[in-house]
Design a protein that fits this description.
The complex is a heterodimer of chains A (327) and B (286). By secondary structure, chain A is an alpha+beta fold. Chain A contains eight helices and 16 strands. In chain A, strands 7-8-9-11-10 form a five-stranded mixed barrel. Chain A has a four-stranded mixed beta sheet with strand order 1-5-6-2, with no helix packed on it. Chain A has a four-stranded antiparallel beta sheet with strand order 13-16-15-14, covered by helices on one side. In chain A, α1 packs parallel to α8 and α6 packs across α7. The radius of gyration of chain A is 24 Å and the shape is flat. By secondary structure, chain B is of the alpha+beta class. In chain B, the strands form three sheets. In chain B, strands 1, 2, 3, 4, 5 and 6 form a six-stranded mixed beta sheet that branches. In chain B, strands 10-9-11-12 form a four-stranded antiparallel beta sheet, with helices on both faces. Chain B has a two-stranded antiparallel ribbon with strand order 7-8. The two termini of chain B are 40 Å apart. The chains are: A alpha+beta (327), B alpha+beta (286). At the A-B interface, β13 and α6 of A face α1 of B.
Chain lengths: 327, 286
């Protein structure tokens, strides 16, 4: 999410400043360092210098801005802001940038493009079999360039390329919604990254790479049908006759206004949280959405100075009360 | 800007439903933030941010000679540059096309014809010695971050920069003969403010599908069929009009757009004026 500036009144600025100060006081980051800070170590302990550290004139100094972590003898600096680094099993949301032989290349906000092999995803018909040349020719009917899809990180190959897999019904193409981009460090790895919010009729996918999908709910069955429909169409593609399903599909592509409003509300909640630099978790998003409803904030006013300040104050209050109970 | 078919349909559907991706209605602006005096070397400068769109305009005044057909007026020229920090595609010569398009559109909206008649900026106030010497204003726009609606943002930035501009007071000694160059004395600490109240503001209406929106984001702009930019002044008069995009428009829609733009511009001018006033107050207190 790029930096956005809100027009704020003087009182709002003062309130925001106070809230941010309060948040700063509550922070519990373990000994943050900036570049060139000396990290206190006992050199006689035979320590190991890890990532983000260097030796300078007999002292261990930080080469990154972050929190110092110690694991037995190892001392390392975990940077606060860093590009996404995939780990095996991460759920990511990405955009197809190229359809190459037997594979799709995806942008997942990593330093290199990820690869999704045709062989590491379920075929639309769901049958397990070898991929034939025909399948390869029909790859564009599954994913096209610019399609947004979600997948799982499979691991990196020997040549250093990063591979993804999509071996389940829940992975695949995402439609009827919007893609948000936040700083990847704001999305923490959780058990659950797919969320279906029944009360709002919205699907929310928090990609570990900082790409977040908010869209109208499409149920798995429907998706399956869609695929079947697609493969059926492929077989009949020589026929000139227009499929009777076409108008039905057109209708299905529109999102009801209520759902659209919910999608916008969730999206704006995520935007606000990312601007404030709060960790983006499902609980906090829902809390923000509920707050916006109880404060009678319209969806468009959520991206305004007043709401921004109130959310900052709310979080500051929560953290300071939590701290008070701990003490 | 690559968008999948699903996203494109979603954006179009949102505009048809009067609820855009960020929750705005069709005729809502994003919040506008203005800073003035951001470039100390320039005579006047301003930075305007609308959402993630970020532009800077600066005004530099230099002594020059009036053109032969308008000898009692100064000259104004506008250049826009797209920084590669805004988008990787602006690197090298990639931004030239957009830069030229924006410069031409701004010139058409804010300046008059070649002769300088009918300009939104009062050119006769730039006169020093008739036929001999005048101020040339070089207005430079810089796009730092692009999230759509660049033309409107640049228009606001130029208006703010012009109201921030101080032109040095000049004492001209009358030359002894008509051919001789007049002697001048430029004051270092006395400035005259440019009157920017007549400078029009640009309202761009972007047509997506059957409807048009104001202050389109870059995603919405990628789905536009055509966009009409109107510059409207405080009196509600249309000072300039440009159309982008190849798709045709029905004349009745253009008439409709003009009246909508006129209505919107009056609110926008009020917002921009108060923002400029606040920015000037901040600058002088800092």
């Amino acid at each position: 999410m790029r930096d956005v500036n809100f027009a704020m009144t003087q009182t709002q600025k003062v309130r925001l400043k106070r809230a941010l100060q309060c948040l700063r006081d509550c922070s519990v980051a373990s000994s943050p360092v900036i570049v060139a800070d000396t990290i206190p170590v006992n050199l006689e302990d035979n320590i190991l210098k890890g990532h983000g550290t260097a030796e300078l004139e007999g002292e261990v100094v930080a080469t990154l801005c972050g929190a110092v972590e110690r694991v037995n003898k190892l001392v390392l600096v975990r940077p606060f802001r860093a590009r996404y680094k995939p780990e095996i099993g991460d759920i990511v949301v990405g955009r197809v940038i190229e359809v190459a032989p037997k594979r799709w290349r995806l942008d997942i906000n990593f330093i290199q493009d990820a690869i999704l092999m045709l062989s590491s995803m379920n075929l639309p018909d769901g049958i397990q079999r070898r991929r034939t040349a025909v399948d390869e020719l029909n790859m564009r009917s599954i994913f096209e360039e610019n399609d947004v899809i979600c997948a799982e990180v499979r691991g990196s190959q020997n040549d250093g390329s990063l591979h993804l897999q999509a071996r389940s019904q829940k992975y695949g193409k995402l439609e009827k919604g919007q893609l948000l981009s936040v700083s990847p460090y704001l999305v923490k790895r959780r058990k659950q990254h797919f969320h279906y919010l029944e009360q709002y009729g919205v699907d929310l996918i928090l990609g570990c790479n900082g790409y977040i999908w908010v869209g109208a709910h499409s149920d798995g069955g429907g998706k399956n049908e869609d695929f079947e429909d697609l493969s059926a169409k492929l077989e009949d593609k020589m026929e000139v006759e227009v499929s009777p399903l076409a108008p039905h599909k057109e209708e299905a592509s529109s999102v009801p206004l209520g759902t659209r409003e919910n999608v916008c509300r969730l999206a704006n909640a995520i935007r606000i949280l990312s601007l404030l630099g709060f960790n983006i978790s499902m609980e906090l998003i829902l809390d923000t959405v509920v707050a916006s409803v109880t404060w009678n904030t319209t969806v468009r006013d959520m991206l305004g100075g007043e709401f921004y300040t109130r959310i900052a104050e709310r979080e500051a209050e929560r953290r300071s009360s939590k701290r008070a109970t701990q003490v | 800007m690559g968008l999948s078919l699903g996203e494109k349909n979603y954006i179009k559907g949102g505009i048809a439903d009067d609820l855009r991706c960020d929750g705005r209605r069709r005729l809502d602006y994003r919040s506008i933030a203005i800073d003035t005096g951001v470039i100390p070397q320039a005579n006047g400068s301003a930075r305007v941010r609308m959402g993630s769109t970020d532009v800077i305009a600066s005004v530099k005044a230099e002594l020059g000679k009036p053109s032969s057909y308008r000898h009692d007026c100064g000259k104004v020229s506008i250049f826009v540059d797209c920084s590669p920090t805004a988008a990787p595609m602006f690197e090298g010569r990639g931004g030239d096309e957009l830069s030229t398009e924006l410069s031409v559109a701004l010139e058409r909206c804010l300046l008059g014809g070649k002769s300088g008649s009918g300009a939104g900026i009062d050119l006769s106030s730039l006169k020093i010695v008739e036929g001999k010497m005048c101020w040339d204003l070089y207005i430079d726009g810089l796009v730092i971050s692009s999230d759509g609606n660049l033309l409107d943002a640049l228009g606001i930035a130029i208006k703010a920069a012009l109201s921030n501009t101080g032109i040095p007071k000049v004492e001209a000694m009358p030359g002894t003969s008509a051919e001789e160059e007049p002697e001048i004395d430029i004051s270092d600490d006395e400035f005259t403010r440019l009157d920017s109240s007549k400078v029009p503001i640009i309202v761009t209406l972007t047509k997506v599908g059957r409807h048009y929106v104001v202050d389109a984001t870059i995603e919405e702009e990628s789905q536009m069929s055509s966009a009409v930019s109107m510059s409207v002044n405080r009196q509600g008069d249309v000072c300039g009009l440009t159309k982008r995009g190849g798709a045709g428009l029905d004349p009745s829609i253009i008439i409709d757009m003009v009246s909508v733009a006129k209505h919107l511009s009056q609110q926008l001018i009020a917002t921009v004026d108060s923002e400029i006033y606040a920015a000037e107050a901040r600058e002088s207190s800092a």
